[in-house]
Amino acid sequence: MERLQKILAQAGVASRRKCEELILAGKVEVNGEVVTALGTKADPDTDEITVSGRAIKAQKKLYLMLNKPKGVITSATDPEGRKVVTDYIKGIKERVYPVGRLDYDSEGLLLLTNDGELAQKLTHPSHHVPKTYLATVEGIPHGDSLDKLRRGIQLEDGMTAPAELDYYDVDQEKKQATIRITIYEGKNRQVRRMFDAISHPVKRLKRISMGNLYLQNLKRGLFRHLTASEVNELKQLADKKNDK
């Protein structure tokens, strides 16, 4: 049993807030009875739910991996009319939403789904889902600078958890280095702020993995469906809390 507005939103009727308005307006019926209480629960598999006389069906769960390009907003919509990640999900009728965020200037692996329960677990701080990035930074950080990030570094919103880092590439000519970094939390613009804290600003940031998912050779701007085994592993990871 789930709240009615959640069922309607997952079925693609409208946003959760708009669905609440439809319920309050008396446009939703469950098994032939008008429902106007927002706390009402129903079972989409057994109850007949209609909106303005039209029956809705439970939306099938979708799990997509997108290689987000730089210069795209991690959102389903943008009031300013800028490109958003859902612009790249062509041919998908179901409403899907990004899990977590990649900032406007970052690129790489982004998970989108309509499985709200899984999304909430994956983004909850207690689950410590590992996320790995390639960060191309100005200058070439010394090992002792990277050790500060490995131990955890003080940012304005608190200490970061210990991170895993190694050199991926060093370009002496351009005076830059690409560092592979794995973090286990999701503070806002965290990787960029971590490298700012050691005076090596990020020039390019690309997420290459999240939990058991790897970007591999998925082309920029394209998406693919997760395999059944990937979804199962992701759910197991989401259900597992650790003390990392």
Automatic annotation (TrEMBL):
Question: Which UniProt keywords are present, listed alphabetically?
Answer: Isomerase, RNA-binding
EC number(s) on record? Answer: 5.4.99.-
Residue limits of the RNA-binding S4 domain? 2-60
Q: Which domain of life is it from?
A: Bacteria
Which InterPro entries does UniProt cross-reference here?
PsdUridine_s_RsuA/RluB/E/F_cat (IPR042092), PsdUridine_synth_cat_dom_sf (IPR020103), PsdUridine_synth_RsuA/RluA (IPR006145), PsdUridine_synth_RsuA/RluB/E/F (IPR000748), PsdUridine_synth_RsuA/RluB_CS (IPR018496), RsuA_PseudoU_synthase (IPR050343), S4_RNA-bd (IPR002942), S4_RNA-bd_sf (IPR036986)
* Keyword flag Ribosomal protein: no
In the record, the note on similarity to other proteins reads: Belongs to the pseudouridine synthase RsuA family.
Full protein name? Pseudouridine synthase
What broad taxonomic lineage does this protein's source fall under? Bacteria, Bacillati, Bacillota, Bacilli, Bacillales
